[in-house]
Amino acid sequence: MRWLSWLGVVVVCGLVTAGLGFYKYNEIQAAIAMGQAFPEPAEAVERFVVREQTRRPSLSVTGEVVATQSATLQNELKGRIVNVGFAPGSRVEAGRVLLRLDVSQEQAQIAEARADQKIAQLALDRAVRLVKSGAGSIENRDQARAQFDSARARVSALAALIDKKTLRAPFDAITSLHQLEVGQYLDAGTEITMLVGVDDHVWIDFALPQDSAQVDIGSSVSVTYGDLEQLMVATVIARDASVNVRSRNLRLRAQLVSDAIDLLPGMLVRVSVPLGSVETVTVVPATAVRRDALGASVYLLEEVEEEGQQKTRARRLKVQLATIADVDQEADLIVIREGLKAGDQIAAIGAFKLRDGSLVIPSAPNEAAQDRSVGF
Fold first, then answer.
1. How confident is the model at residue 364 (pLDDT cuts 50, 70, 90)?
2. CA distance 31 to 197
3. Are β-strands 51-55 and 279-285 bridged in parallel, bridged antiparallel, or unpaired?
4. Which residue ranges form the domains of the chain, and what is each CATH number?
5. What's the number of CA atoms in the CB half-sphere (13 Å) around residue 176?
6. Which residues pair with 191 in a beta bridge?
7. Angle between helices 138-164 and 104-133 (to 10 degrees)
8. Is 338 helix (H, G, I), strand (E, B) or coil?
9. Beta strands in 225-277 (DSSP E)
10. Which member of 31, 130, 148, 350 lies 3.0 to 4.6 Å from 124 by CB, making a disulfide possible if both were Cys?
11. pTM as predicted
């Protein structure tokens, strides 16, 4: 009779298991039905209509503003300041006295030297007269001449020493800031001020890779600064004699009239250098291009009919980007060599949310983005 008890237990367990399985099955089916009742999610993106634009290939590099005249003024001799002749950041003319050091000791020495020179001059004149009259020797005359030359040289040396303690502006310039005060003692080689020449133009120094350095003297380059949209044109005036052995770049220098914007030496600017002839290219916003291990791609927007309704879906499309050697990839627009044609509609802003086959809700094309151009 014991087996009947065990059989009853097995039957009860089986019924409980079947009941739980049936309950779980109904729960899963209800969840599936609820999920199917919700509409397919759609991603909002900005629509961009691909266009072809005519441009000239260019390479954009960083350039540095350089003054046509500049110098760091330092004192050659040590001494105490007796006069400061310029204000910090002021404009000075060529020859203006900027700084005087104490020369009282040198002035006393030069007075003594001039007296010695006068005595030597009198002795020389006397020796010359005696030689002419036959009463003096040529040896005494030559010794007197040597003493006179020595005294005159000492006067010249002291005069040069005094002059070195007076610092003058070598050209019209703007001075840098300073904290010089009368009575301050300066060691030799102390930096007094930085002088930047006053001119109506500045130099723009930049470097190009050796493969793209075929820029002729006299050609024009475009210069932009910061967020300013103003485009300035500079003329290439010089190029370095050799390529840098470390970077393999060639340095060039362009001259730019600086009346349009106040460019200060040391500022960084963007220099756009033309590299070839005018060509027609296809451009897209940088936000539309997705990059991964398989390369670059965009999402093409296609109109499809599903269940009697017009919908827009995204299809991933591989594209080939232009290389640096071909064109300059600007920050907000990228040149496409292969994969797209004029008139194609792609996802721009919001493309990062898409996957192949995603349902999308595209907005109207951004007219500002459509009207942008690359190069010049």
1. confident
2. 79
3. antiparallel
4. 42-57+279-371 (2.40.420.20), 69-98+168-198 (2.40.50.100), 103-164 (1.10.287), 199-274 (2.40.30.170)
5. 14
6. 74
7. 160
8. strand
9. 232-239, 249-257, 268-274
10. 148
11. 0.60
